[in-house]
Design brief:
With 263 residues, the protein is mainly alpha-helical. 81% of the residues lie in helices and 0% in strands. It has 6 helices and no strands. The longest helix has 101 residues, at 136-236. The relative contact order is 0.06.
Length: 263
């Protein structure tokens, strides 16, 4: 604590934030151990990954500020800050390895068809076994490399999510257009059905009128035939008393005698 009291307030603040994140990560992994559902475990790993990214940024900031203040610090302070940076990187590296092991375990539970997760798990175990044999600089480099890989994986995941959202939006728009088209088609079919119904009624009315006209024409035809028959009979037998005279066709009237003709 005496050596830490010699550093600036900014570095002390960053160190305190990093320590808080490490405590949070430890608690989160303990909670993760008790979760059995793979979906909840995945969500918890996402939260842990986000905390790791924040911790990585703070460690880089700690390293940058320490280099800026290097000329103002004593050699012992600079050496202590260097060791502190390596220690924090090593601790974060251990959490990253643990996170990868959990991720591989979740993928194995889901019976994924890809073999990648199992390979990553073995690689993480190997890193955990070899961590004690690495130098501090190697640990720092390895930790930075693993954090970069984690960032890239998160970026790829975000890109996939964005693409999925875009595809979903396009699909929703296409479905809406198709729904509108179907609504218009249904309305047009209703209009056509109504028109056909009205046309059918009109055809029936016309049919009834035609039938009525035909009856009238047939009746008139019968009348004309009857008149023609009477005319023919009167012409053939003008003295037939059973048939009444038809104006203009009866026999000529007898010559009337005037009174002065009788004198």
């Amino acid at each position: 604590m005496d050596s830490m009291s010699a550093i600036s307030e900014e570095l002390a603040s960053i160190d305190g934030q990093i320590s808080d994140i490490f405590r949070t990560l430890s608690n989160e992994f303990q909670k993760l151990e008790k979760i059995k559902d793979t979906n909840r475990q995945s969500r918890k790993l996402e939260e842990i990954t986000e905390r790791m990214r924040e911790c990585k940024m703070l460690i880089k900031r700690f390293e940058r500020v320490a280099k800026e203040e290097e000329s103002r610090n004593t050699p012992d302070t600079n050496r202590m800050l260097n060791e502190k940076n390596k220690s924090m990187t090593k601790e974060l590296n251990s959490y990253i390895t643990l996170k990868k092991q959990y991720a591989s375990s979740i993928e194995n539970k889901r019976a994924d068809l890809f073999d990648g997760p199992s390979g990553e798990e073995g690689f993480g175990n190997e890193n955990g076994l070899l961590a004690s044999s690495m130098t501090n600089q190697q640990l720092v480099d390895r930790g930075n490399h693993m954090m970069d890989e984690t960032d890239q994986a998160i970026d790829r995941t975000k890109k996939v999510v964005e693409d999925t959202i875009n595809v979903g939006a396009e699909t929703a728009a296409a479905l809406k257009n198709q729904t509108d088209q179907m609504s218009r088609i249904v309305n047009e079919l209703d209009s056509i059905h109504f028109s056909i119904k009205k046309a059918s009624q009109l055809v029936k009315e016309i049919g009834r009128q035609v039938a009525t006209d035909r009856c009238i024409m047939a009746f008139l035809f019968l009348i004309v035939i009857g008149v023609i028959a009477i005319i023919i009979v009167k012409i053939v037998n003008p003295n037939n008393k059973d048939i009444r005279d038809i104006p203009g066709l009866g026999p000529p009237a007898q010559n009337r005698k005037l009174l002065w003709d009788l004198k």
